[in-house]
Amino acid sequence: MLKSLSGLSELHIIAQTMRIYENPELISVYDLPESLQIGNQLVIYDNPKLNICNAPAICRLIQTKPENCFVNNNAEGCNNTNQISQKCISNTNESGQGIISVFPNPAGDYVWIEGLTKEIKIEIFNVSGIPVSTIYSEGIVNIFDLPQGTYIIRIKNEFFRIVKG
User: Fold this and answer.
1) What is the torsional sign of CA 106, 109, 114, 119?
2) Where are the domains of the chain?
3) Spatial contact of 135 and 128, defined as CB atoms under 8 Å apart
4) Per-residue pLDDT reduced to its tens digit, 29-47
5) pTM for the predicted model, two decimal places
6) Dist CA 15 CA 60 (whole Å)
7) Other CB atoms closer than 10 Å to residue 77's CB: what's the count?
8) Cα 75 from chain centre
9) How many CB atoms are closer than 10 A to CB 119?
10) What is the pLDDT of residues 60-115, one digit of tens each?
């Protein structure tokens, strides 16, 4: 059983079917290499904590061959192809407050969040889905203390990928 997909950085091609199933501790698949090419089928099921599925390789397959993607019985946000597709669109998402944008990307010491109308809880996760920071802000997030790398920012139930350079 997998807890993360780190260690797969050298994986470039899956010729046939990629299966991610029955991993009770897996939270995120964002560690998949961005250049990964998935053959003809994707199967993600029975991962009760998995809620971050918008890795670029998965997004590409869902956008080009949605009929070949079978996703169910995972956590909210990763429970079907529609939920994943919504997270794949971009770093501009709609929430209950309207359209939210996170920038710049890549980021330095601060990230700005446009579209918030009040102070709100903002959570930052590493690519393995482990929380690294929780703050309350109306739009400016200090990431000075975070090491360089890729992070996922959650605002309400929307996820944004950023790179701290």
Assistant:
1) positive
2) 13-88, 92-164
3) no
4) 888 887 788 888 999 999 9
5) 0.56
6) 15
7) 19
8) 13
9) 11
10) 788 778 889 999 999 988 999 888 877 775 444 444 446 787 888 788 888 888 88
CA distance linking residue 132 with residue 143, whole number of Å: 10
As a three-state string, the secondary structure of the chain is CCCCCCCCCCCCEECCEEEEECCCCCCECCCCCCCCEECCEEEEEEECCCCECCCHHHHHHHHHCHHHEEEEEECCCCCCHHHHHHHHCCCEEEECCEEEEEECCCECCEEEEECCCCCEEEEEEECCCCEEEEEEECCEEECCCCCCEEEEEEECCEEEEEEEC
CA distance 19 to 30: 15
Residue 137, amino acid = S
Tokens (6 digits) for 96: 């209950």
CA atoms within 13 A on the CB side of 136: 3
**Residue positions counted in the chain:** 165
- CATH code: domain 92-164 is 2.60.40.3080
The whole-angstrom separation of Cα 11 and Cα 123 is 29
List phi, psi (to 5°) of 15: -65, -40
Tokens of 55: 């890795």
